[in-house]
Amino acid sequence: MIPVSSGSSSGRILVVRGGAVGDFILTLPVLTALRTHFPGNRIEVLGYPRVAGLAVEAGLADAARGIDSRPLAGFFARGGDLDPGLSAYFAEFHLVVSYLYDPDLIFRTNLARVSKAGFIQGPHRPDESIADHASAQLLRPLEQLAVFDSDPVPRLPRAPVHEGPRPLAIHPGSGSDRKNWPEARWEELLVRLADQEDLRFLLVGGEAEGKRLERLARVIPPARCEVLRSQPLTEVAHRLSACVGFLGHDSGITHLAAAIGLPGVILWGPSRVAIWRPLQEHMDLIEAGELLGDLPVARVMEVVRPRIRSWFAAR
């Protein structure tokens, strides 16, 4: 049996998870399951702090450490020179659950040089040849700990919503152009929504969106639009919590919005729905596949307008 305890306060578990925002959010059920089944153990994340901070703030992890720190480089080199401070850090853990891409077992071998921790290797990316959702596939390695039937839905607490106008959140980008609806169609949609609905808008994005947010903001009356760009994900989560709903693509920000319980409509492109879609029932998909670029604005409007009205009615 892997050496962790369901009751002892001395156990320490490390989850190693790189990847983009969506990859990390789809791994949240792993942290939730570990927290639930091993409540006396300290759980830490080795990942990108700007993303892993979401788990720390939510109480799913006790701390996060940067996977891109220079001293860690030796652990990714065959026979690498291992940093003494990190060696001592890894030696403190009883269990390591890793989702790193490590086909030659370099990281695992180096870790074994300094730590006696039990080691579980998870997939760095879901297997798209099977129909199981990504979150379910990421949970499966925990069966080695006798952890079965865990909830695969990523969940983060929604920040308290204060009184006042609640905007509609728009994320008009993603990490891949193939998953993006054309900017000109977003522009037409925003013009129609601003003209036909009494809405405020929060345009959300990061470096991947370039200047797209600023260009789209120009078609909305300035008093009704705010741009939130390249902010820490914990701040993005807080701001999304105050929104009435969400429109976006297959992206990490969409998975973040879903995890905090925000209802939304997703313009879904070529990604496999069965594996990558948000599992939350309050997220509706308009599936267009490879023809996402041809999805008419009128079709999106006929789906989005009644959803927006229902979101406001449910406040």
Major sheet attributes: 6 strands, parallel
* Residue-averaged pLDDT: 94
N-to-C CA distance = 48 Å
Characterize the quaternary organization of these chains.
single chain
Per DSSP E runs of 2 or more residues, the count of β-strands stands at 11
Strand order of the largest sheet: 8-7-6-9-10-11
β-sheet strand percentage: 15-25%
Radius of gyration using CA atoms only: 21 Å
Helix content: 25-40%
Q: Which structural class do you get from the secondary structure elements?
A: alpha/beta
Number of helical segments?
12
**Envelope shape:** elongated
Low-confidence stretches: none
Order of helices and strands: EHHEHEHEHEHEHEHEHEHEHEH
Structural commentary:
The protein is of the alpha/beta class. Helices cover 33% and strands 17% of the residues. The chain has helices at residues 21-25, 28-37, 49-57, 84-91, 106-114, 134-139, 183-196, 212-217, 233-241, 252-259, 273-276, 297-313; strands spanning 12-17, 42-47, 63-66, 95-98, 118-121, 168-171, 201-205, 225-229, 245-248, 264-268, 283-287. Strands 8-7-6-9-10-11 form a 6-stranded parallel β-sheet, with helices on both faces. A 5-stranded parallel β-sheet has the order 3-2-1-4-5, with helices on one face. Strand 7, helix 8 (212-217) and strand 8 form a beta-alpha-beta unit. Helix 7 (183-196) crosses helix 12 (297-313). The radius of gyration is 21 Å and the shape is elongated. It starts with 11 loop residues before the first strand and ends with a helix.
In short:
The chain is α/β, with parallel strands linked by helices. The chain has 12 helices and 11 strands.
